[in-house]
Amino acid sequence: MLHHFDSDISDIELPKRFNNPYHYRPHRLCRMAADEVRKVVEGNRERMQEIATAGKMFGVLVVRAQSGEVGFLAAFSGLLGGSNVQPFFVPPVYDMLHPDGYFKQGEAYISQINVQIDTLLGSEEYVAAMQQLNECRASAAADEEALRCSMKIAKERRAALRPAATPEQLLELERESQFQKAELKRLSKRLRKSISDAEAAVAVYDDKIKDLKEERKRLSAELQEWLFSRFVVYDACGNSKNLLQIFKEQRGCLPPAGAGECAAPKLLQYAYLNKLTPLCMAEFWIGAPPSGELRRDGCYYGSCKGKCEPILNFMLGGLDVEESALEKAGDRFEELDIVYEDEYILVADKPAGMLSTPGLVGGRSVQEWLTQHCGKEIFVAHRLDMSTSGLLVAAKSKEILKTLQRAFATGAVEKEYNALLDGVPACESGEISLPIAPDYMNRPRCMVDYSCGKPAVTRYKLLSNVIYDGRRCSILALFPLTGRTHQLRVHCAHPDGLDTPIVGDELYGRPAARLMLHARRLAFVHPVTGVKMEVVSRLELL
Asked: What is the pLDDT of residues 306-329, one digit of tens each?
C-alpha cells in the first residue's frame, strides 16, 4: 500500500515535526499525494458516480520506510462502493464487513428482528385492530359530545321553567337533571369499556413489538460494544488499546457509531503495523457536499473531534507533533487599538487570531488585555470568532454589560462586516435565510439544519471585484440580522447561500494567511446616555 510519488521529490524538504491533525496547512508532499489520489478516484467511473452524488473524505499520510524511501499511504473515511476494502487504499482498522464475521452475523439477526417488527406493524390483524380502536375512540367522543349538548339544552330549558314552576314541577325538573347526570356516567362507563376492549386487542401486538424493540436495542448495544473491543489501535511506541478503553479513559463514555472508520486512524494504523514512520498527514474532500454539512471539493479539513480526537490523542503518542497554532495565538499582540472609550464603555479593534474572551487555548484574550489596560475588570459584551477581526464592545461594569448584551440579543445593534470572498457571488445583493445548528461531531464547525437549526438571516451587498493571490475574488458588505455562531461564514460558503466561501476560512473553504472577515461598523444606543452611536473600525480588511 506504500505508493511512490509520480514526481521527483528530492528537492522538497521533509517536515521536521508531524503536523497537528486539527489545525495545519497541508505540506507540499501531502498536496502532491492528494493530487495522485484524485487521479485514481477520477480514473474509476463507478467511484466517481458515487462521489458525484455523495462526496467522500479522503486522507493521505506521507511516510518514510525503514530503507529511507519516502512515499505515501491513502485512505477513505467510512465505506467506498459499499466496501471498506478497496485497491490502492489501506485496509480498515478492523474489517467488520467480512461476510462470515461475527459482526455481520449479528447485524443479520438484528435485521431479522426489523423484518419481524415491520411484518407485525403491516399485518392485516394489527391494522384492523388499530382501525377499530381509532373508530371506537372517535365514536365514543361523538356520543359523549352529543349527550353533553343534549344535557346543555335541557339545562337551559329547566332554568327557564323554574321561576314559574310549582313545587311538584321543581321536583320533577331536579329528577330529570339527576337522571341525565347518571346517564352521562353510564355512557362514559360503557364507552371506556368499549375503548379498553379495543386497546387490549391492539396491546397484544404492541407488546410483541415492544419486546422485539427491546431485544433489538440490547443486541445492538452488545454488538457495538463487541465491535469496539475489536478495534485495537496502536501508537508510535507500539502500545495498543481498543476503542472502548480509549473513550472510557478520555471521555467516560462509549464510542460513537463510526468511530475508528475515518481516514486518519486507518492511515496511522497501517503505518505502525508496517514499520513506516509518519511524516505528515492531510484529509480532504472529493465530490459533492453532504446534506447540511459544508464540505467543498478539493478543500482540506482537520480531523473530526467527535469520533477521532480521543483515538488520535492515543495514536499520536510517541510522535513529535506540532502544537496547535491556536495554543497561544493571542500572546503575540502587545497592543490593541481602542477606537472609543468613556467612563462606561469602550470599543476595541480586535486583530485576527485573538480570542474575544478567555478560552482553554488561544493565549491572552481581548477581555484580558482590556482588563490589564484599564486596571479594572472589563466585560466584553459580544464575541467575534478568533479568526475574525474588527470591533468589539466592552462594558466597565456588570450592570452596563447586561444592557449591552440585551441590545445585541434583541437585534438593536446594527452590524456591518466586510468579507473577501473566494470568488464572485451570483447576485450583487440580497438576503440569505438558512437555519444554523452546531455540527456536534465536528466542533467547532456548524451546519445548515432545516429541522433543528435556529433561524439565521444575513443581508449582503457586493462592493467590488478584486484579484487576490492570483484568484478572482470579491469584497462584500455583510449585515447579519441575527447572531448565530459562524453565521456569516456558513451563509457565504453554503450552496444554498452565496456558495462562495470567505478567503482563509479553514473550516468551510481554503486556508490563507488569515480569515478575511472584518467587523467594520457598529451602531447602537449608548447604554447610559441614550445617544445613538456609530463606531467605524480604523483597520482595513485589505
From this structure: 899 999 999 999 999 998 766 666
Q: Is the pTM of this model over 0.85?
A: no
* Percentage helix, strand, coil for the chain under 3-state DSSP, each rounded to 5: 40, 20, 40
Residues 358 and 342 in one domain: yes
Output the pLDDT for position 381: 94
Is 35 labeled as catalytic in the residue annotation? Answer: no
Asked if 359 and 493 sit in the same domain, the reply is: yes
**What is the average pLDDT score of the chain?**
91
Pairwise CA distance, residues 76 & 31, whole Å: 16
CA distances from 227 to 78, 86, 109, 231, 240 (A): 15, 21, 15, 7, 16
Domain endpoint, select from 254, 280, 315: 315
Residue 156 sits in the same domain as residue 52 = no
- Same domain for 207 and 267: no
Q: What is the pLDDT of residues 151-173, one digit of tens each?
A: 999 999 999 999 998 999 889 98
Cell digits for 148?
Answer: 353533553
d(CA 531, CA 533): 6
Q: For residues 33 and 109, what is the distance between their CA atoms, to the nearest angstrom?
A: 41
Is residue 275 within 8 A of residue 10, CB to CB? The reply is no
Q: Is residue 12 part of a domain?
A: no
Number of domains observed in the structure of the chain? 3
The edge-to-edge listing of strands for the beta sheet with 277-286 is 70-76, 56-64, 277-286, 300-301
Residues 472, 475, 479, 480: is their CA dihedral positive or negative? positive
Torsion of CA 273, 277, 279, 285, to 10 degrees: -20
Separation of alpha carbons 507 and 122, rounded Å: 45
Residue 7 lies in a domain: no
What pLDDT is recorded for position 36? 96
**Residue 291 in this model has a pLDDT that exceeds 90:** no
φ/ψ of 174, rounded to 5, equals -65, -40
Domain extent for 150: 125-226
Helix H or strand E encompassing 245: helix 243-251
Ordered DSSP codes for 353-375:
T--SS--SSSSS-HHHHHHHHHT
At 20, the amino acid letter reads N
| Residue 57 · residue 80 · CB < 8 Å | no
Evaluate if residue 541 carries a pLDDT over 90: no
99 falls in which pLDDT band (50, 70, 90)? low
Q: Quick one: 401 and 491 in the same domain?
A: yes
pLDDT tens-digit map of 125-135? 999 999 999 99
Helix (H) or strand (E) holding 111: helix 102-122
> Which position among 235, 349, 385, 422 bears the catalytic label?
385
Is the separation of the CB atoms in 413 and 525 below 8 Å? no
SS3 180: helix
Dihedrals phi, psi of 474, to nearest 5 degrees:
-145, 150
The whole-angstrom separation of Cα 486 and Cα 145 is: 54
pLDDT tens for each residue of 202-244: 999 999 999 999 999 999 888 888 889 989 999 999 999 999 9
In a domain? residue 13? no
Helical spans, DSSP H, in 320-424: 366-374, 398-409
Does residue 477 lie in a domain region?
yes
